[in-house]
Design goal:
Distance between the termini: 61 Å
Structural class: mainly beta
Number of strands: 26
Shape: flat
Number of helices: 0
Radius of gyration: 22 Å
Order of helices and strands: EEEEEEEEEEEEEEEEEEEEEEEEEE
Helix content: under 10%
């Protein structure tokens, strides 16, 4: 076994007195390497590079409560098989980035998990290769951003959760984006608070995307959900509860399914649902409960099916099939 590292096998740093401005770097080349970095304090940075098989990296940067400890950064780059990276940040203004791959043709079984608690955090995960898995969760606070990009292989799975409400309200103006290119990918995003935006873009076959905003008890206000799928036999599901929401599903291909559900508009009036399916043999279903809702369904070519259910006042439904 060949192992080359700035810090051999395991690195553990704990700021016992809440030290500030910590900097740690971990570089490993070889098999069965393992790295652990623990930092407590503000303005700390943790970096890691692992090249080889069966690598693991865990980085933790501390405090939270009233969102103490700020402006920390954790960066991980892994190439090879069976890599695993976990990064946890607890304060505000933190940044976490994970890149796994691209050591073609051996990019298998990668895993990335990032958890951030606080405000104005940013989490980015990029996975290149097959059988990748990514999970990102941002708990409380405002202006958090989560991005997942998966490409270059089969069996990818991405899930992002942004929280509060029920009813801590909170989590204002958060954004979650998942982009997947390849086959057999799956995407899920849950958002609670208000002014949230969720976007899922999938290019390939057998992809699935599910997005939930609100669900409810003061969850969701002025939220926007978008799913864009290219390929065949895709399933897109979006569920929104409460206030000024907009849900859009765009699918191009054949044998795709799109389902959208919007609940009571608690604040000001006005949910809107839009489905656009290009190709043959699609199924579209729109469900709206509340007031001032509008559902538009556009389906092209042949053998498409549309189902619209509206309960409440001032609802409008437009269905157009065999459109150019």
């Amino acid at each position: 076994m060949k192992t080359l590292s700035f810090l051999t096998v395991t690195l553990l740093v704990a700021g016992a007195t809440h030290a500030q401005n910590n900097t740690q770097s971990l570089s490993q080349t070889g098999n069965s390497n393992m790295g652990t970095v623990t930092q407590t304090g503000s303005n700390s940075s943790a970096g890691g590079t692992q090249v080889g098989n069966s690598n693991q990296l865990t980085q933790t940067q501390g405090e939270a409560a009233g969102y103490g400890n700020t402006m920390n950064a954790a960066t991980t780059s892994q190439r090879g098989n069976n890599n695993k990276a976990t990064q946890s940040q607890f304060g505000s203004g933190n940044q976490a980035a994970i890149t796994q791959g691209d050591g073609v043709p051996t990019d298998n079984a990668n895993e990335a998990v990032q958890l951030q608690i606080g405000s104005q955090n940013r989490a980015t995960a990029t996975q290149l290769g097959g059988t990748s898995y990514s999970y990102q969760e941002q708990r409380g606070g405002s202006n958090n951003e989560a991005f997942v990009t998966q490409s270059g292989g089969d069996g990818n799975y991405a899930r992002q959760v942004q929280h509060d409400a029920t009813s801590g309200y909170g989590t204002n103006d958060n954004r979650a984006i998942i982009e997947q290119t390849g086959n057999s990918n799956r995407s899920e995003q849950d958002q609670m608070g208000n002014n949230n935006r969720a976007t899922a873009i999938q290019n390939g076959s057998f992809n699935q995307a599910s997005q939930t905003q609100g669900s409810n008890f003061d969850g969701s206000y002025n939220s926007t959900a978008l799913i864009n799928q290219l390929g065949n036999s895709n399933v897109a599901t979006q569920s929104q509860r409460g206030d000024n929401q907009r849900a859009t599903i765009e699918q191009e291909g054949s044998l795709n399914t799109a389902i959208q559900s919007q609940g009571n508009s608690i604040g000001s009036v006005g949910n809107r649902a839009y489905i656009d399916q290009d190709g043959d043999s699609h199924y579209a279903r729109q469900i709206q409960t509340g007031v001032g809702n509008q559902a538009d369904t556009w389906q092209g070519a042949n053998n498409n099916t549309s189902d619209v259910s509206q309960v409440g006042n001032n609802n409008t439904s437009v269905v157009r099939q065999n459109h150019p």
